[in-house]
Amino acid sequence: MVLHSSIFSNLSTKNSYEVKGYDIGDTFPSEKFDLIIHMAARGLIRKSIEMPYEYFEDDLSLTLKFLEKARRDNSDFVFLTSGSIAKPTNPYSLSKVQSEEWINLYRELYHTRSYILKFFNIYGPGSQKGAVFLFTKAALNKEEAIVYGDGNHKRDYFYIGDMKKVIGLILDRKIKPGDYQIGTGVKTSVNDLIDIVKTITGNDLKVKHQPYILDEAEELLASNPLIKDYTSLNEGIRSVVEYIQQAGL
Questions:
Q1: Which is more confident, 233 or 90?
Q2: Which domain holds residue 137?
Q3: Nearest-5° angle of CA 197, CA 231, CA 193?
């Protein structure tokens, strides 16, 4: 396996399979893998507008390198992308959409066993970004949290530890190659998320509202999630609390 991001630590422990990591800038691997999980990419939308060529190289071009390696080595290929991208409005989102088009083309022309996993709001131990981490950390440290907009927009929060279940389905060939939504199918408003964080941490959370930096959808939800036995948001936040406390963040 070849992969990158905080999901790596969740997959590389207590498994019967060997997991190897690859990061942007590392020497491209020459060995063969049963499964290539590609999630290495630049991820800041505003930066992509400032650095379009770098995003092409590290997002779309890197996807094609791994995809071609999967074709030549007869490896299964997994591509992680965002479930919120519809119409590309910047180099980052364009690279994601074009990557999906290339993957589908390889699947059609070369019968590559490929899976496009469209994640919604992923969170959990090891991840130090996103609303769940930022709000929980702020509550534990009695800091102020920033909310963009009025907090009524709803999101689907998926626990990072459940990624093992998704990869297990692919390794065991229990699902066919194709496109899948990775979420819970449960929508939670940002305001409700804040209330849950307050309850679990036992602390108040001061919130500062700011206008949206970029346009935000009012609701992002997996309409047909791949797995049904997901970790509840309350349970997941408790794990985030433990992670923050143990890491001294």
A1: 233
A2: 127-156+184-249
A3: 25
